[in-house]
Design goal:
Two copies of one chain form a homodimer. The first copy, chain A, is elongated. In chain A, helix 3 runs parallel beside helix 5 and helix 7 packs across helix 10. In chain A, strands 1, 2, 3, 4, 5, 6, 7 and 8 form an eight-stranded mixed beta sheet that branches. An eight-stranded parallel β-barrel of chain A has the order 9-10-11-14-15-16-17-18, surrounded by four helices. Chain A has 17 helices and 18 strands. Chain A is an alpha/beta fold. The N terminus of chain A is likely disordered. The interface between A and B is large, with 47 and 47 residues.
Chain lengths: 543, 543
């Protein structure tokens, strides 16, 4: 709905934030490292760690399906996760085959994973309402991880793996613990940009690993843009044949499926963005007439502007392309972009001018953009998908379906934008303070960590409409050479902000845990850059 | 000599810079890429490239010793270089075994390398006065590379390899060319810091490769500092045993020898820095009494300050340690540091206070630092080495031997500092505008490129005392995860500034060449980050 439209605003009274159920006290009984919470990242909602140590014997320890679980050996998502986390826990020790005689009096022999809901979601894709809650009880002789769905089990496995530590003698221990956890925000995304620079499949998969380690659950794949069109369309193969940087810089249908499945196995949604009508120069390479010819006075200048909004052929093309996209990408949402549309070219084109006049939108090119986007929204609805758009679509007054999501990205007034979007009853995702492509000297992770997404003027019902946020690593200066160290552990700060309770704001404690978490990422093959001076016991494996 | 000392200043008259012999016109006849100079980086002094293409057949082409060369097959430095550059030229083609039928009418069958001086320097170490000049003539049927010494031959091989290009069919070509080249500055360094973070040997060697690709010739190894002491001393093994981050974070004598030899084979000096009297916290871990005990009023506070300058034991220790350093590191120079000495602790210590009083230096702790440094300079002289120091040593008025070099690193007044240092007749190295650890968004390489090291007030004889510069990548936020992409190609900008003629300042031309040079570095295994949007035909080999 438009800002000035007559639609009903959410009526609510601004109140001081009530103490939410998320603000439960953290009971931490047994500090065993510099942080009372060990190396946990992000911090669970409720956490009890006791002083009692249990030893794990790599040869005997097992991760298994617990009795009563609705998932079993046929759930390959969990089977894969069990194997993966066993490897993360024990795989980096040089001494894993040493004599497993117990040093502690007590041994933890297994982690039993129990999916409590009738439907485990094992073969499904995660979505915005996926249940990621879990409970983890670690005690002798077995630990029990309970989750309604596999998504919570994945998060709990990550937490369990973070609780295990290796002593100086190569023995593995875990402290008896009791954890109840669930995310504060449902949408916790990382934006990657594969148009400004192509990212090899391996980089994307490695990044998905890192996302799982930080409990992110959305890969926002800004897959095409002005610079290149690496998405290989089956319906319109010319788009990548002409618009990709080269034949080697293309994501085939197989590649895309692989990314989606690799993400699914880690509880991560893949949200595709096909940004229009701006940011589309590369589309014009392989699709005739899709872009607006710009004019220099009365003659075409030879250059092209945004998508041509006045031709029926445009919408026919878009309907077919987005139909394909809706089948390739299983997510309920498609990101339609809609940002940074430059009206100069539209204003120069006589057909566009004539159209604007005829439509009676009185030379408002913002309204022309809304006209275009509303057509796109219709296409998206017709293929049973929902839309996410950048904030300008909202700002320009497009009529947005109530299930749309507005992504807030612009500068310093993002709190006011959040207020306005949610006042219209629309859901919002916050990206503005988390543009990780803007680098600076020093520990900038603190700046990202200090952001409180709900610190805008609005009532509780408005706050609830902020469903999450995204760390955006735009690709102008990023490719496979620097993607991972530039993103991690800076994005980890945002991961904790979006997962953990609002009152988790202690920078010193966060630093201590994040240092260890970063070393853990290194051990697991993520070349996360250092936070500050120091070292990891296991440095990067292949510098 | 001190700033206020009565020593004789270099007398000279400031004049407008005369057109130097370096400012020869570049004749470029045959542009074959976006830059008339192809992908050459840094740009040679005199360059003629003709339109005539010669083809190279990987199966037949050879790099050989030319007749009359004073070096032959027994010169393993050149033998290794021949093999290495053959691999750089042909090694990345997928089609190198394809049929070598000539497409051009003319073929280049060999590069003959001729060392013209009687003494080739083949088994020597490079030094500050090493001759790096070379002449390269590429014509049918053979190319000839002439250099006085092997150092020039190494630079010429790099240039030759940059001239060869692969066409779309996998055939290799080079244009007939005539190049006369030599560096503008003799000291072209990269500073790495292995104390704030340990850098694995492999990272250091990879960086040496990249340095050779950019014609850098000094690895300034800031090997120890407050945070850790990774240098394993044979004389004082406790220094690293106690002062290194861990047993795995140590450079053994074998490691150090390997770095030095790997560097030598690429014409790169290894300049060790053992920074004292500040930046020495880690020294205190393994060496009793080396640091000054700080006092809180009348009692030791338990913390320690800079090296203790009042004990004879300090200088006995330093004499032994530096004696060892002088044998381990073959370079003529040792960097003594001398930067950022905090006097607070010295001022608190009663023994130091008493000493200052007795010495009659009237509570000038800057003079105490000079006292200390002069003792260190005596030690260095006694082991037949020369000293490089950070600028504070000069600023504080220490009596510096005339063969010392002052490294200028502080902030925005570096031009004035250069003026003052050279006015005293001392040589200077410029680092101030090239602190690459300070990162920022965008194409900051342009800022580094635009620096003109001699743009300070001073006469020609002063300008000649500026012997070069260094790109410094301090290690607070850098380790093996991000060293290479953070350093390259940003340091390349400084590489060209220090090698090429003063009038090579065209940013657009530089951008075009640097984009290709960066792709070449990627092909050769250097994960240099992108300059801006775009792609390389061969992306990073193992992201």
């Amino acid at each position: 709905m438009g800002l000035l439209g007559g639609s009903v605003w959410l009526l609510c009274v601004s109140t001081a934030l009530a103490a939410s159920s998320l603000r439960q006290p953290r009971h931490v009984e047994a500090p065993r490292s510099a942080s009372p919470s060990g190396s946990l990242w992000p911090l669970p909602r409720v956490l009890h760690i006791s002083a009692a140590q249990l030893q794990l014997a790599p040869k005997r320890f097992q991760i298994v399906h617990g009795s009563g679980s609705s998932a079993g050996p046929r759930c390959s998502l969990l089977q894969d996760a069990f194997r993966r986390y066993y490897e993360y826990i024990f795989g980096y020790s040089k001494w894993q085959n040493h004599d497993d005689k117990s040093l502690a009096n007590t041994e933890l022999t297994a982690l039993q994973v129990i999916i409590t809901a009738e439907e485990s979601d094992c073969d499904k894709y995660p979505d915005i309402s996926s249940d990621e809650a879990y409970q983890l009880y670690v005690g002798e002789p077995v630990a029990v991880l309970k989750a309604g769905k596999v998504w919570g089990a994945l998060r709990g496995l990550e937490t369990f793996s973070q609780l295990v530590y290796e002593d100086d003698y190569g023995s593995f221990f875990i402290n008896a613990s009791d954890i109840t956890d669930s995310p504060r925000f449902a949408h916790r995304g990382i934006l990657i940009d594969t148009s400004r620079h192509f990212l090899p499949l391996k980089s994307i998969l490695t990044n998905l690993d890192a996302m799982a380690f930080n409990k992110f659950n959305v890969l926002h794949w800004h897959i095409v843009d002005d610079q290149s069109f690496p998405y290989q369309s089956v319906t319109f193969p010319e788009l990548s044949a002409e618009g990709a940087y080269s034949y080697n810089h293309i994501y085939t249908p197989t590649d895309v499926r692989l990314v989606i499945e690799y993400a699914r196995l880690r509880g991560i949604r893949v949200l595709p963005e096909f940004d229009t009508p701006g940011h589309t120069r590369s589309w014009g390479e392989g699709q005739k007439d899709i872009l607006t010819p710009c004019y220099n006075g009365e003659h075409p200048s030879g250059s092209y502007g945004p998508v041509n909004p006045v031709l029926n052929s445009t919408y026919n093309f878009m309907a077919k392309l987005f139909k394909e996209i809706s089948t390739v990408f299983p997510d309920d949402y498609i990101h339609l972009g809609g940002d940074e549309v430059d009206f100069t070219c539209w204003k120069s084109n006589p057909d566009v001018k004539e159209f604007v006049k005829k439509q009676g939108i009185w030379y408002s090119y913002a309204k022309l953009e809304s006209y275009y986007i509303e057509k796109m929204l219709d296409i998206v609805s017709s293929i049973n998908k929902k839309a996410i758009v950048w904030q300008e679509v909202f700002d320009n007054g497009a009529e947005l379906p109530s299930d749309s999501i507005v992504e807030v990205w612009m500068g310093n007034l993002y709190q006011e934008e959040l207020r306005q979007v949610t006042k219209e009853g629309l859901s919002a995702i916050l990206a503005a303070p988390w543009y990780l492509d803007y680098i600076s000297y020093g520990q900038d992770w603190k700046k990202y960590y200090n952001v409180e997404p709900l610190s805008f003027l609005g009532c509780e019902s408005q706050k609830k409409l902020v469903i999450g946020g995204e760390a955006c690593l735009w690709g102008e200066f990023v490719d496979a050479t620097n993607l991972i160290p530039r993103l991690w552990p800076r994005a980890s700060a945002i991961g904790e902000r979006l997962w953990s309770s609002k009152n988790v704001t202690d920078l010193e404690d966060a630093y201590t845990r994040l240092v260890e978490h970063r070393c853990r990422m290194l051990r697991r093959g993520i070349a996360a850059q250092p936070l500050y001076v120091g070292f990891c016991r296991h440095e990067v494996r292949d510098p």
